[in-house]
Amino acid sequence: MPTLVEQSLRGQEAYPAAQPKRKAPALFASRSGELGSIGLAGSQEIVSVTSERGVSAGVTEFGPRPLMGPGGSWPSPLDCAVQVSLGAERSLRSTLFWLKDTLLSPMLGQSDLEVRKSFIVKQVKALLEEGAIDRARDLLQAQSAAIKADDRLSRLSLIVKPGRVEAHDVRGPDRRAEMAWIQSNASQYKGKWIAVLGDTLIASGDDLRTVIELIHEKGPETRPLIHHVV
Amino acid sequence: MLTHGTDRFTTGRTSFVDGPLERESKIYIEVQPGILDLQILAMVDTGAPYCIFDSEVADLLGLAFDPTESIWLSTRRGSLEGTLHRIDIRIIAQEGQSLNVESTVFVTSDWRYGNFLGYPGFLQRLRFAVDPSRNFFHFGSAEPA
């Protein structure tokens, strides 16, 4: 008797017969906890984890909505086929993280602390994907020392910490001539890297390293202004 | 330098280019990324969360895309997977003081679409003002003196 995952991987219907007919399962979780291939099955917002005992948990696009199965416990055996029918990629991704971290990982024997760390990493990354650095920093700062000690979270803390800003008494050359040249002529060099000094183009090329070599060959006293014309 | 009441508002000034490099006018200023002795133009992009540099610049900076520590970012070129890094970016003053800003940079593989200075990862740490009549970009630290 093949497991649900095996059935699913062959593209067969993994839902129990009592479930309404849907398109083929879109995502699979194996015993190792790895999430498999993804293919959206429609525009519905419900995600459900299905085991041989039926639906045990579900989430909507807006967050987890546990739907405990018969007896109120998580299913066994561990094989689960996860059917996904979300329309939005972002929601889908965050939902998958939630499924893996809060539902599948405990079933796979990971400790609560590891699950929590993994969940925080995913939450911080989701915030960073929205550019919400401040909220990611607040979330990290609110964690316990044991969680903050995690290598991944330590690295993320460095990325979101308030950036240092320092003024220096250093001035560059007046670039108005370079900028005027670029404004008037750059369109002729689309796709190229160019180096301009004063009102003169001193190097151009398809890649930055070539342009840097050309600049070194010419050895100007003042550094040119480099631009990639896209 | 610009003042706000009796307070100093900006401490440096540079020039900018504003097209017609592209169909729409954009503001490009001169910066020096990280430890590189390179002065390049980067676009001021308040709509972008992070700084992005051409992959060739990122390579020279030693910034690598790490797929094990990646996030996805929605860009004008589609949704891209990349890694966040921290580096100093210097805005080079032509008058006043240059500014070193510890910045958050998104590094993705094969980015060939120019250099960008994003808002939360860079611009949010500055005060800045644009004088379009003279193409001057005024800047200073947003941190209290």
Please supply descriptive tags for the structure shown above:
heterodimer, A: 230 residues, alpha+beta, five-stranded antiparallel beta sheet, 9 strands, B: 145 residues, mainly beta, ten-stranded mixed beta sheet, 1 helix, globular
**Overall shape of chain B:** globular
Low-confidence stretches of chain A: 1-92
Mean pLDDT of chain B: 90
Q: Count interface residues per chain for the largest interface.
A: A-B, 48 and 63 residues
**Count of extended strands of chain B:** 12
Shape of chain A: elongated
Percentage of residues in DSSP E strands of chain B: over 45%
User: Termini separation of chain B (Å)?
Assistant: 15 Å
Largest sheet of chain A: 5 strands, antiparallel
* SSE series of chain A: HEEEEEHHHHHEHEEHE
Task: Describe the model.
The complex is a heterodimer of chains A (230) and B (145). Chain A is an alpha+beta fold. Helix content of chain A is 38%, strand content 18%. In chain A, the strands form two sheets. In chain A, strands 1-5-2-3-4 form a five-stranded antiparallel β-sheet. In chain A, strands 8-7-9 form a three-stranded antiparallel β-sheet. In chain A, strand 3 (54-60) and strand 4 form a beta hairpin. The longest helix of chain A is centred in the middle third of the chain and has 19 residues, at 89-107. Chain B contains one helix and twelve strands. In chain B, strands 3, 4, 5, 6, 7, 8, 9, 10, 11 and 12 form a ten-stranded mixed β-sheet that branches. In chain B, strands 1-2 form a two-stranded antiparallel sheet. Chain B has one helix at residues 55-61, and strands at 3-4, 7-8, 12-17, 28-33, 40-44, 71-75, 78-91, 95-96, 98-108, 116-117, 126-131, 136-141. Chain B is globular. Chain B is mostly beta strands and 145 residues long. In chain B, a hairpin with a 4-residue loop joins strand 11 and strand 12 (136-141). Classes of the chains: A alpha+beta (230), B mainly beta (145). At the A-B interface, helix 3, helix 6, strand 6, helix 7 and helix 8 of A face strand 3, helix 1, strand 6, strand 7 and strand 8 of B.
